[in-house]
Known about the structure:
The protein has three helices and three strands, in the order αααβββ. The chain has helices at 2-5, 22-51, 54-79; strands at residues 89-91, 98-100, 118-119. α2 packs antiparallel against α3 (54-79).
Amino acid sequence: MAQEIEPDTERPEPPAVEEHESDINLISGANGEIYETSDMYPSFIKKAQEEGNDKAVQVFTRAKLAEAYHAKLYMDAYTTIDAPFDGSYYLCPICGYIHKGENFVACPICLAPKSSFKAY
């Protein structure tokens, strides 16, 4: 979407991340997702609303909701770190929602059908 508005926009490089034990990484990941849900995306949504950019409002709102699910998955992984999970995770190609396991029909955020998800 950034390239639609500004065609010369380049994807930023991800920042260097300090390495820690898995449990600390999971908590840190959850904290990042919580920040995105509570602070980052709400400010993006507010700015998009002020600019009257309905498409951006929709994209940022969906992303905010997906990040809340991501935080939950990090915390689930943290609390079950010693319990193996042999199932798959499914990524929604529209909004980024991630579902753990087979038991779903469609994305709860954007309603994309399960058949469009990518399994990992």
